[in-house]
Fold these 2 entries.
Entry 1:
Amino acid sequence: MTDGVQALDRWMDDLLRNGLANLENVGSAPWSRRARRLVDAQVPGLARWLGSLAGIPGSGADWPEVLLDELGRMALLTEAFHRLDDLPPPLQDEVLRRLGWSLRKEEVLERGERVRDRWVVLGRAEEEDELLRTRRDWLAGLDGGRIALLLQFAHGSRRFETRLDPGTTLEGELCFWPGSNPQRVLVVEGRGSEVTVDRLPGSEDVDAFLDRVSAEVARDPWARRFGGALRQVVPVLGEDGWWLRDRRGLGLPFQSDHCWNLLAISGGHPVDVAVEWDHRFLAPLAVVADGVFQELC
Amino acid sequence: MDPFARAALVGTGRHPDVPTPGLEALAEGLEGRTPERRLLLAAGARAVARAAGRTAGAVAPGPDAADPDTRPACTPGAARLLRRLFTGRQAELLPEALSRLAAAGLRLPHALLPMALGADPQVREAVREVLGTRGVWLARQGPSWEWAVAPTEAEPPPDEPSLEAKLDHPAQRIRVAASRQLARMADSRLARQMARRATSLLTSRMEVRLPSELDDAWRRDLGADHAPEAVGRKAGWLLRTVALVPPSHWEDRFGRQPWRLVADIASDEVVLAEALTRATLLHDARSWAGPLWDWWQTRVREPPGQSAVVDEMRAALLARMPREEAERRVARLLEGAGDAALEALLEALPVPWSAGFSRQYLAALHQHVEALGPEATGFSLPWQRSVAIAGRALSPAVLPEAAAPLPLARSRTLRIRQWRARLDAFAETTRVRQHLVEEIPL
């Protein structure tokens, strides 16, 4: 593992010494070659991260900045790994998890925090490549206000192990992965209700949502996906794209294949929107308008 | 571009002095590291700081919110069905689904509006009826949805002088269109003059007297001079002239009813029959549609290579008859191997068919399929093609009957396999339509 991380450090140093400009015309081959070496060196988490950067060069006017942000954060991670023993144990968990050190279910159940609540399934994001499908279901505790992520993978056409229906409530116990900023969960036990919610528990305005993001980044500087719900926001199409605007007139930009659907459903009226934030854009996942929950798909 | 990104782009090999604006405290901790590593770690720290310090921007409000809809949305089941039709599967059923929605006093659910506004231009009129308040509100903001916002302005009826002027237009298409419009104005100069000219071409026994030459004024009023293919030059003048005159002119002139006049047309006077048929279509002379259809069906002595005209005339006339009359005429063709134009004629019938005609069709189809046998002897392409039309056109009342399996042979010959594919598609179409009927009750 250490060898693989050190080799990645040297590779990143070379990139920076020669300049990122060279990357614009080389395609994805260098990235996937380096990612394969990381897999061989037992750091699959870093391999996936690195592989996902291949599309950035040349992808927009600001690509050098976007790529430098990513590489910089990756360097912070390898730096943290080299000084792992100096870090508090919960942060060590985050670092190791990001490198690709996976915990077995029994370990999660043994070490993770268990939280009982009525969990609303806010919405779902899915991604797919030729081999693997990734599903992220975001949940919010009605009583405790915690946000939880059920992250699942399925190969090919296989089913996901745990099935939750967005818009419904799961009454039961979740177990959080151990770490300094627990997001990911296992469902320990729970009983789903068939009834869909008529409002989403979430942040009353965009500032409150960003405060939560700040707190999470402080606990885990590599956190990059933040689920949740924005209450009573209006989708607005501006000159510079789509925005969700809260009742104080502040907002964040959003991107989706379903922007017009969200606008159609809201009709310019405030709606509750389940979102996922990635530091750049919100992705709307579901909406409650007139007390009716609808997934955006 | 910010200084970090510029340094990274060029490379620390050329620019070893990494700027660290705002990150001086951090830079101290990085003393002794390589320039590359210093740049990376500083960039990483800045990325994290930006992510944590992100603030919301002021956003200008959007347009006024939509007024409430007055009509209720359809059921979720109907919404799923419509989504499927909008995404192109069985899209041919979209017009029926949309008009059913409108007839039931319902509107599209809001989530389907972007898809509906982006639908094919052919279904726009049907979509417009079920957009509701929200749909129009959305269309006003959309990229290319003006068609749904602007009320369809009825074009002002053209006035005679402007149409007269168009008779001198260089484009024949414009001239012919103007000539037809003027012919439909009951007391226009062209209509009056054309009736007078036509009178000189026909005797009261419906015998044709071809003109020897046209004067310039006549030629101008026709809008076009050259004859259609396969018709002589003079016959072309007759065709164009009589086609412009309302058929009622002949009733008045000769004092006889349409069926009597049509009965007098000789079986080889195809040009005259075509001219009267075109006049019937142009002037919507419904009382002529039946007699002319019967002439084309039973009297015509088809000139070689002209069957297309016969089929075209029959299909066009069907669409001008009352439904029962049209269906009665096509029902006679359902027996036997099938008229070569069965497909075109069925297509010309008003949709949906009556329950009675639908049952006649299903019974005839059953018989035809049964008679095919394992080798598909008596194979008829018009019959095979007709099932696609029937799937869309059958009366909603007979859809459950249409689901009954047909006695198709089990052999694997090519023709039987083709039949099976057609019948499977037919079954799927009628199943979806039955589903529509259930989800959108009237």
Entry 2:
Amino acid sequence: MSSVSYREQIAAALESGWRFAGLHATSDGSSVRTLLADATGATRLETAVAQQGQVPSIVDLAPAAGWDEREAHDLYAVGFAGHEPLRPLVDHDLRLDSWTVPVFGRDPYQVAVGPIHAGIIESGHFRLHVVGERILHLDARLFYKHRGLERAAEGCTLDEGLAYATRACAACAVANGVAYAHACEHALGLTPDVELARVRTILLELERLWSHLNDLAAVCSGVGLAAGNTHFAGLTERARRLNAKLTGHRFLFGTIHVGRSDITLHRDDVRLAADEVAALRAEARRGWRELQFNRSFQDRLPDIGVVDAAAAVRLGATGPAARAAGLADDLRASSPRLDYAGFEAVTPERAVGDVQARVEQRTLELEQTFAVLARLLEGRIGPAVASPGGEERAIGIGRVESPRGATSCIVERRDDRVERLRLRTGSYANWPVVAYAAVDNLLPDFPLINKSFELCYACADR
Amino acid sequence: MLTLFRDLRRLRRDIGLPRPDRGRSLAIRHVDAGSCNGCEHELGATANPLHDIQRFGLDIVASPRHADMLLVTGPVTRNMERALRKTYDATPDPKLVVAVGVCGISGGQFGVNYATRGGVDQVVPVDVYIPGCPPRPEALLYGILLAVGRLRQRK
């Protein structure tokens, strides 16, 4: 396919309702592949072969491709014609003015925060351009935690490669693992049987459970409400202990495998888990009710960090951040490889995309998670497999709704070896949205805005 | 001036750190040198109401300038190496460094590659290693108390 038609293909696809879902360079940097997805969960890949190390940029058609193109340039030396300036993203060995947006004028000054923060927070750098207390612009510099895991996975067997996908991020280990397993199974022509779909759905929702509880605790601490923080931090701890009881690991590490599941649980243990989930539901509801009537908490939330629906689409926001803006997109509603029968995306009543809407969205999603777990935690859990019979492919695609949004995993294989692994997580998609949300807000509100997204750095940096 | 600094350093070294026979407080600065966020979540959990790290007189402080101990997680990435060294230098002597988790100990899954330098001791001296992937909150508390000599090592 010629490079000119690559741009036309993307433009036509976006025109007819497809959405940008990721872009990566192939292992040798000779081509670039763009992943597109539609509302039914269908995916397609468009490939552009580089001419003299260059492919045409699509960042004008899909602004969400900005980070993907910058990363491909830094790590695979692909040029993107038309992406000007092509600022470095992963490569930190360059001067400050090479990656920041120049801000001129007499009044603006910069507030530089990180990479090491004052609390127990992951490493990342925020350069806030500020006039008085108001944020003019935010340059977020991540990839301090870039561990080169996609490269490290190259040459591994498909089974071995899983460890790199799951260790990308502890908070999304199951989501990343299932996305990887789906990608491999897609490539190998395997279809998960009913029990495998059920087990993975339970694990995904257990992960969302502790993650969303933790997010609510984080927002409370962002507001300085210690009582709310301790309530939800305590529930987060209980959710992690439940994980450990069921699977031996508080973050559910080692539970996902390509083509199978080994978890076996007696029906009595499953019933105890269901009881604990029900108890957590009651406690979470009680905590949320108290937060709703806490004036000093509620007063901090509305009308800050606004990302409306149009901006969310343009910037490629996903997960709770997109749904809080009124976009009813949730991969769980179109996941034939998982057990989400009858699932429908929810959005808050006041879906204006501010901090309040994102916080409320977490509580709505917690209700869904409790409902899914209540339905699936019944009867014993046994070993399960994915059955062969489907078409085999060189490139497999897996997409999963992580607690932070749509996560796409692409596995390009040569026989049973990983030739290229690409993991584009919900956090990766949403980080540029955080930078957008910060603009025009007061500097002291930035930590709260950031916490209302509660993105992983590890997931983005890989 | 220089002599004074040397005396101050000696003074701090002699009296500064908690001794095995005394239950003294300890200020800890956490540095994420490239972890998967698992160690951070468990470190955060040591402060939740069920573990309550402060009952031991331990506290996470905002600056290395206020810290007696650096708690370092993750394989040290190339992009975090300089920040880790600067944090180490900014922490006043005497200081303790704890490498947290399998990645902090050896680089773990990631080992050494174009983007990572391996374990924490490849970049700064380490006093105590806390194993686990990630270590549970109880293990973190045990390791920290062990590092300051408030517990005896299990044989």
